[in-house]
Design brief:
Helix content of chain A: 55-70%
Radius of gyration of chain A: 20 Å
Number of helices of chain B: 6
Strand content of chain A: 5-15%
Structural class of chain B: mainly alpha
Number of strands of chain B: 0
Strand content of chain B: under 5%
Largest sheet of chain A: 4 strands, mixed
Number of strands of chain A: 4
Number of helices of chain A: 15
Number of domains of chain A: 1
Order of helices and strands of chain B: HHHHHH
Structural class of chain A: alpha+beta
Distance between the termini of chain A: 52 Å
Distance between the termini of chain B: 21 Å
Largest interface: A-B, 62 and 58 residues
Bound molecules: zinc ion
Strand order of the largest sheet of chain A: 1-2-4-3
Radius of gyration of chain B: 14 Å
Oligomer: heterodimer
Largest sheet of chain B: none
Chain lengths: 305, 90
């Protein structure tokens, strides 16, 4: 199974569409001009702030990375870095000087098992393999020019599907769905399973609760405590469970069926209330609007801008 | 940050910022009455995402986020996770 064949269809479709968007093209041209003036110093910064994990220093990690690189057919040489942080996190940078850089927090390397780490590595490499850097979402949302709100929403929607693709790449590398679910649980809770007894079924059941709650607005279904604190990662686990049952992994469901189910799952996360005409959506919009004004005014006072 | 997202729509006529800020509590109540807990979380999640999109979230900004979350019975750990951003790998 190639990396391309397991990519989430909605990620690809939105990626193709966004890549043509005038604002995206313009920002990409700016970035290219900037890069032509000289490297942005990703590697220099990493070398200054993080520790490079060489084969001698971390043979296990280098070997796992090698397996993921082969599995996803990554062409560029990869350099791994670790930085000190109590929060679990990892990131993949846009390649520079024909090299790809992946960074892990120290706590993640210490608190994750081998299979869990392979999922994280595969996830990060997935972003590169699927060329997600071609949509510079950070620049577009944080840049000086104001993004059109419609574009901002499309970028958010795309980035959710892009995460689904990267998760599939990670699962493809780890080949251990239990480990994948554990990794996502750890990432969303910040807890290791030493502290909390982990039940995959409970975790995924949260999503079913969410779907039920959404059908009956205003009537909250009973929920466990930490459901309310970490609602978004179970969706990713559920999306991966669907992937597991499909022909793209070891199951027999069709790809088309998989993508439809993933789409209906992720619609739970889409801020459709920004356009919907119901009373509930209207109330949500009104709060978002007023609260955004309050937040913006908190520091600088919007009136000055 | 606000201008980034709603700029050309929001500033077409003069907003009375103080007046609007005063409506936050009432609007929280409205969302509590009409929306499900998940939908309330969605609003807070989007607020955090938008606050983060402007870069660093200041203490003053964060306290507004906390107020909204509290009003909606959403634990402040949810804000931390959304603002400090680890649930989603980069
Ligand atoms: Zn990611």
């Amino acid at each position: 199974m190639s990396a391309a064949s397991i990519r989430c269809a909605n990620d690809l479709a939105l990626y193709e569409k966004l890549k043509q968007h005038v604002d995206v093209v313009r920002v990409n041209q700016q970035i290219a001009r900037h890069e032509a003036e000289g490297p942005s110093g990703v590697r220099r910064n990493l070398l200054a702030t993080s520790v490079r994990l060489t084969k001698t220093m971390a043979p296990d990690i280098a070997q796992m990375a090698g397996e993921c690189i082969a599995q996803l057919d990554v062409k560029l040489p990869v350099e791994l870095f670790v930085y000190s942080s109590p929060q679990f996190n990892a990131a993949c940078f846009k390649p520079e000087d024909e090299r790809l850089y992946i960074m892990f927090s120290s706590s993640l390397l210490e608190g994750f098992t081998k299979a869990e780490l392979k999922f994280v590595m595969g996830h990060e490499l997935g972003h590169h393999v699927y060329d997600h850097h071609a949509i510079p979402i950070g620049y577009l949302l944080r840049g000086q020019a104001r993004p059109d709100p419609k574009l901002a929403l499309e970028l958010f929607a795309w980035s959710r599907y892009a995460e689904i693709s990267a998760d599939r790449a990670g699962a493809h590398c780890a080949q251990d769905m239990d480990a994948v679910a554990h990794a996502l649980f750890k990432l969303s809770s910040g807890l290791t399973t030493k502290v909390v007894e982990f039940s995959l079924d409970d975790f995924v059941a949260q999503v079913d609760d969410m779907q039920q709650v959404d059908q009956q607005p205003g009537q909250g279904a009973p929920q466990s405590d930490w459901f309310s604190t970490h609602p978004f990662s179970p969706l990713r686990v559920k999306a991966l469970k669907l992937f597991e049952q499909s022909e793209l992994y070891h199951g027999n469901g069709s790809k088309q069926q998989l993508e439809l189910r993933v789409q209906s799952l992720l619609s739970l996360m889409e801020p459709s209330y920004l356009e919907a005409k119901t009373d509930t959506a209207e109330a949500m919009r009104r709060l978002l609007f007023a609260a955004l004004v309050a937040v913006a005014d908190a520091t600088n006072g919007i009136s000055e801008q | 940050m606000f201008a980034n997202f709603f700029g050309k729509y929001a500033f077409s006529d003069k907003l009375d910022i103080e007046k609007l800020k005063a409506t936050v509590q009432r609007r929280i109540k409205e969302v509590r009455e009409k929306a499900s807990p998940t939908q309330a979380m969605q609003v807070v999640h989007d607020l955090c995402t938008m606050a983060r999109a402007s870069g660093h979230v200041s203490a003053a900004e964060r306290s507004i986020l906390e107020t909204v979350a509290q009003g909606l019975d959403i634990p402040s750990a949810f804000i931390c996770q959304s603002v400090d951003g680890d649930a989603d790998l980069d």
